[in-house]
Structure formats: C-alpha cells, structure tokens
Design goal:
Number of strands: 14
Bound molecules: pyridoxal-5'-phosphate
Strand content: 15-25%
Number of helices: 13
Radius of gyration: 21 Å
Helix content: 25-40%
Structural class: alpha/beta
Length: 356
C-alpha cells in the first residue's frame, strides 16, 4: 500500500511507552527529576512569557545568549577560568536526542560507515541510527564494563560512550577511557554526560586535547527541564560549525530558550538538591540489597539498575501496584523519586519478592 516508504523502516517500532493503568502512578521510568522547578522560578517564567515572549515571531535561531550561558556554566561547574570554553564550543538541540541525530547525519549518513555502542546502553543511539539507515555495531557489556577490541572495528565513524552509562549507572573505567583516547582521528568519540550533575565527573578535559571528542549534556535531568527539551554539545568549534549547519533553523522554541536561560542563571539553587537525591539513591540501594534475589549495582546517576530472575514479570507486578519503572537491557532501571515514592518502591518490591 505504501511502496514509496523505505522498506527497512517497517521493521522499526515507534518509541512509545507502555499503556498505563488508571489511577495514581509513581513514574520512575525516565530518570526525570522528581522535583519540578522551584515555584518562584516558575512564576518568573510565567511573567516573562506574558511580558516579553513574542509568540508571533520565530525564535532566536542564533542561540547566542544560550550558547554564552551554557559556556559559562560549563566553565564554572568544571572550575575552569571563564572563557576556557567559549560559546563557539557549544551547539544546542531540541533535547540531546536532536544532537544525537545531527551527529549521525554529520558523520555517517550516506557513507556506509556506522556507529559503535556498548550494550546495554541508551537505546536512542541505535534507534536513531536505524531510522537513517546507518549500521550499528555493538560490543557486549558485562553489566559494568565492555570488552575492548584490540583494533578499531572497521566501518565505524562514531562511537557513543555514556558516562555514567544508562541503564547500568557506572562511569567509564580508566581502561575504557584509555581505549577511547587511542581511537584514530577518523572516529568521532561522543561522551554522553546526561547525568553529569549527579556524577560530578566529566571528561571535559579530554576535549582540549582531542579534536575528535564531543561531550553531550542535557537540561532534562539534573536541571529539571525535561518538558522544555534542551540539550547541548560541547566540542571543538570545527565540529560545532557543522552541527549548526545540520540542525533545523528554529529547533528551539522561544519559551524553551527562556526556560533554559533561567535555569542556567540559577544553576546553583537548582542543583542544590542533588546531594539529597544521592542520599535517597543510597537508601534505595541499601533497601533493594535486602533482597538476595535482586542483583543491584551501585550508581553514579539518579537511577539504579537491578537484575531479577523474571524482570518482565517483576516490571508488570510493580506496575500493577502503581510503580512504573523501565524494563531494559535484561533488567529493571528505577529512577530515584521523592522520598515517599522511593519508600513505596521498596514496600511494593518487598511485597512481591519477599511476601510476609
Ligand atoms: C535522558 C538522556 C538524554 C537526554 O535526552 P534529552 O533529549 O536531552 O531529554 C541523553 N542521553 C541519555 C543517556 C539520557 O539518559
């Protein structure tokens, strides 16, 4: 019926979440912040909308103010002198998802060359590659770490490394970083630091030494801005110039730019709750470890990953009790929620795996 569509797309499934039962639900499946922005900031944003947003005009397509604000945050959060990373090192996307697609377009599309990932990892890399007909090679992760091939696999132009990884929650090991460093200059190394605000650990320093490295970050997690869709890339200006060519001209709505500028202006206040999230994560970890049937890993992000004998069934049983988590990579990934949500997670899990 639709012979004009690419046949390879028929095999792909749309990125949809499962249909959900009615009633209240603890949504711990997407690693969003459990807390919304502080009320005064939301009020400030609402006032800005009324007073200065021009709904009838296209957004600023240069992102100048945003690039500057991001560059300032990047330097401050890395204790680098202001200007070490300038706005010419930044490109902003409609979520880092858009940047992932732009990177695929800018490196692999139409070349027959592909990407390399270490699975399980963030599923979007492979999903977006396949929609562009770009081949995906994967290394196997033994939960924590992956087998590093001696030689660069042939046909690879882009490597996605995640620091810390999702769903497993661990940082790249020193050996893995060393392996990434020795990749030839024909390969772009993308280090996704979506959870940097929780891990506090960045490979930013590598950028200054390796012009074939790029760091991805997002405002969707620690900055609590998932609804506004803002992510960014940090890389040598030669790469940024091409990302700016590839993106849609008006990729970032005016209101999203406004919201991003606001949270970046208040970054210390917004990130002040990160230590509480980490405390909650450690309590959740300790609680999960009470159950020998669950194998739980430590995490440097705002989620935990566990393996269980029948994860699909456990996922369903949790959902029936009102907790939605992510069934991925052969295990369950559980976002750290509010204290009340985390307590419910532990109670519900206990009721399932160790009924009284
Ligand atoms: C959440 C997440 C992102 C962020 O995506 P956005 O499109 O910016 O919301 C990117 N990479 C990983 C690994 C993530 O978990």
């Amino acid at each position: 019926m639709t012979p004009f569509l690419r046949a390879d797309l028929a095999a792909l499934a749309p990125y949809t979440l499962p249909s959900l039962p009615p009633g209240p639900l603890d949504r711990l499946d997407s690693n969003e912040s459990a807390l919304d922005l502080p009320l005064p900031l939301r009020q400030d944003l609402a006032a800005k909308y009324t007073q200065s947003l021009e709904a009838h005009r296209y957004p600023d397509s240069s992102h100048q103010a945003l690039h500057q604000a991001i560059a300032d945050y990047v330097c401050q959060s890395a204790s680098l002198p202001a200007g070490t990373i300038g706005p010419e090192w930044i490109s902003a996307g409609n979520g880092s998802d858009e940047l992932i697609r732009s990177l695929l377009i800018a490196t692999c599309l139409g070349t027959g060359q592909g990407v390399l990932v270490a699975e399980p990892t963030f599923s979007i890399y492979a999903i977006l590659a396949r929609t562009l007909g770009i081949p995906v090679q994967s290394l196997k992760r033994d939960s924590y770490t992956w087998e590093m091939p001696r030689e660069t696999p042939s046909g690879v132009r882009l490597v996605f490394a995640l620091h810390p990884n999702s769903p497993t929650g661990n940082l790249l090991t020193p050996a893995e970083v060393t392996w990434l460093r020795q990749l030839p200059p024909e390969v772009l190394v993308v280090v996704d630091e979506a959870y940097f605000e929780f891990s506090g650990d960045s490979l930013l320093g590598e950028l200054l030494e390796h012009p074939n490295w790029l760091i991805l970050r997002t405002l969707s997690k620690g900055f609590r801005l998932a609804g506004h869709r803002v992510g960014y890339a940090i890389a040598h200006p030669a790469i940024i110039t091409v990302l700016e060519k590839v993106r849609l001209p008006y990729n970032l709505p005016s209101f999203s730019q406004m919201a991003a500028l606001l949270v970046l202006d208040h970054w210390q206040e917004i990130l002040a709750v990160v230590p509480q999230v980490i405390t909650e994560r450690e309590k959740l970890l300790a609680g999960l470890r009470q159950h020998p049937v669950l194998q739980v890993w430590p995490s440097r992000a705002n989620f935990l990953y566990l393996q269980a004998p029948d994860p699909g069934r456990l996922w369903q049983q949790l959902l029936e009790r009102g907790t939605l988590v992510r069934h991925t990579g052969g295990g369950l990934r559980i976002s750290v929620g509010t204290r009340a949500e985390n307590e419910r997670t532990l109670e519900r899990l206990a009721a399932i795996v160790a009924p009284a």
